[in-house]
Structure formats: C-alpha cells, structure tokens
C-alpha cells in the first residue's frame, strides 16, 4: 500500500513540474507584417543639346622671329618684328553637348575664324644701310575644343557659368608681303595644327523649355608655329602664338527633353519600398 502511495506522489509531482515549465515558455514568435514607407528621390536626368554661336574676336600679336642670311655672314642670324597687330574679325561655331546635371555639362565645339588682317614692321640693314620694312598678311583658323562647364545656379531663368576647354587649332597664314627700300618680296604663308586652350565665362537665358540664349566671353591661347617661308635671304619665320579675346552669343537647344534650367521644377518623386522592422527575441 505504501508503494502505491509513493508512486502516485511521484507522478503528481512530475505533472505539476511540467505545468510550471510550460507556463514559463515564451509564446510562439509571429513576425509583424512589413510596413511600406516612402523614400524621396532627387535624381536628375541630363540631356543632349546642340549649340550654334557667332563671335567677334580680337587677336593680340605676341611677336615673331625669322632667320636672315647675308653674303658677309657665315651663319644665319635671327631677327624679330618691331611691332605687329591684327584687325578684329568674326567667327562662326557650333557643337554637341551633354547636360550631366543642373551644375555640370560638357561639349565639343568647333569654330571657324574668318580672315584677320595683319600689319607689322621689321628693321635691319639693306645693302649696308638701315632700313625698315612694311609687312602685310592675314590669318584664318579652325578651332576644335573639348569643354567642361560649371553652371552656378539658375536665378529667374538666368544661369551664370564658368568653363575651360582644351584642344587644337589649324592656323593658316596668307602670303606675307614684305616691302622695303630695295623692293617688294613675297613669303609663302605657313600653316599647320597647334595646341590651344581656353577659359570661358557667361550666362544663359531661358527662351523656352528647351531653348537657351548663351552670351559670354572666351579667352583662347594658341601656341606658336610657322608664319612664313623663305624668300630673298630671309625666312622662315615663326610667330610666338596668339592670345584671342572673344565676345560670344549663340543658342543652345536641348533635343532630348526640356532643359534642366528652363523646365518647370517638379516636386521630388517618392518611391515606396517595404521595410521590415527589427524584432528582438527575449
């Protein structure tokens, strides 16, 4: 009888312990549903544009040297122009560009500079006597540049900018006419490609959503090169390059969509994504 009582007591104790342990167990984990939230998107898409420009430029002559020969000279000597200057001239240009975002853009441009007349003078000896020459020529050029610009913000449809470019220029001199006391001589003009770089500043004005008027200033430096060839104991001659100041005006047309500067500014877009909150288990 005592054995049965003991067995019943043990079973009862185990049952109570099981109930207590079950009460201490955590409830089964049921993760909360994902919550949709909105994220603001401010991405800007750029676009391609075409440009056309008309320019008026002033060229500064930086000097030139040439080789002289004489019957009393064993080696050729070197002489230089006493002075020289260019007339102002016009140019036309165009290009293809890409507006990266509201503040950065880049383009490839070409400009044809029409004839700029040159007048200069040299001094030396003619038959043992001092003499001064009167020299006349002109030059034309084709300028190719790869440019980058920083647009400084748009204010009531006006966008100021600064920029820089690098490239090359094909310079073609006409024949140089050299008049001195002993006669008139013709030197064949030089031609060839030269290194060039430029700095720009200006502003664009919105005319429509896709069309902007661009006006500004450009400084262009063209390295030196062949100016004229040999004739009558003188030549060839080499100019030291040009510094060119340009007043520019033109149009930029955004053909892949409205310009970022001129289109009505839209509210930032919102994108919905699913977010699952972190849950910490006890």
Automatic annotation (TrEMBL):
* InterPro entries (alphabetical): Beta-barrel_OMP, OMP/PagP_B-barrel
Keywords of the record, alphabetical order, are:
Signal
Q: Any idea where the Outer membrane protein beta-barrel domain is?
A: 40-255
**Which Pfam families does this UniProt record tie to the protein?**
OMP_b-brl
Task: Output the Gene3D superfamilies linked to this UniProt entry.
Answer: 2.40.160.20
Question: Is Endoplasmic reticulum set as a keyword in this record?
Answer: no
The leader peptide range reads 1-22
Keyword Signal listed: yes
User: What name goes with this protein?
Assistant: Outer membrane protein
UniProt source species: Chelativorans composti
């Amino acid at each position: 009888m005592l054995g049965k009582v003991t067995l019943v007591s043990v079973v009862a104790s185990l049952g109570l312990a099981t109930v207590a342990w079950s009460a201490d167990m955590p409830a089964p984990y049921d993760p909360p549903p994902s919550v949709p939230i909105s994220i603001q998107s401010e991405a800007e898409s750029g676009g391609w544009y075409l440009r056309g420009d008309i320019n008026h430029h002033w060229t500064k002559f930086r000097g030139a040297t040439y080789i002289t020969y004489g019957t009393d000279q064993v080696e050729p000597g070197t002489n230089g122009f006493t002075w020289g200057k260019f007339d102002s001239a016009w140019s036309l240009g165009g290009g293809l560009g890409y507006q990266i975002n509201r503040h950065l853009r880049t383009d490839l441009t070409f400009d044809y500079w029409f004839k700029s007349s040159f007048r200069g003078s040299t001094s030396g000896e003619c038959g043992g006597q001092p003499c001064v020459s009167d020299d006349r020529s002109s030059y034309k050029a084709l300028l190719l540049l790869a440019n980058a610009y920083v647009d400084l913000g748009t204010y009531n449809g006006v966008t100021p900018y600064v920029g820089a470019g690098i490239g090359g220029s094909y310079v073609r001199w006409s024949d140089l006419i050299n008049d001195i006391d002993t006669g008139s001589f013709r030197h064949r003009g030089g031609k060839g490609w030269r290194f060039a770089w430029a700095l720009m500043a200006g502003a664009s004005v919105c005319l429509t959503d896709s069309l902007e008027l661009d006006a500004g200033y450009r400084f262009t430096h063209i390295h030196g090169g062949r100016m004229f060839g040999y004739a009558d104991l003188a030549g060839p001659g080499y100019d030291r390059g040009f510094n060119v100041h340009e007043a520019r005006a033109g149009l930029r047309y955004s053909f892949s969509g409205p310009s970022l500067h001129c289109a009505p500014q839209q509210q930032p877009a919102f994108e919905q994504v699913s977010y699952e909150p972190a849950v910490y288990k006890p």
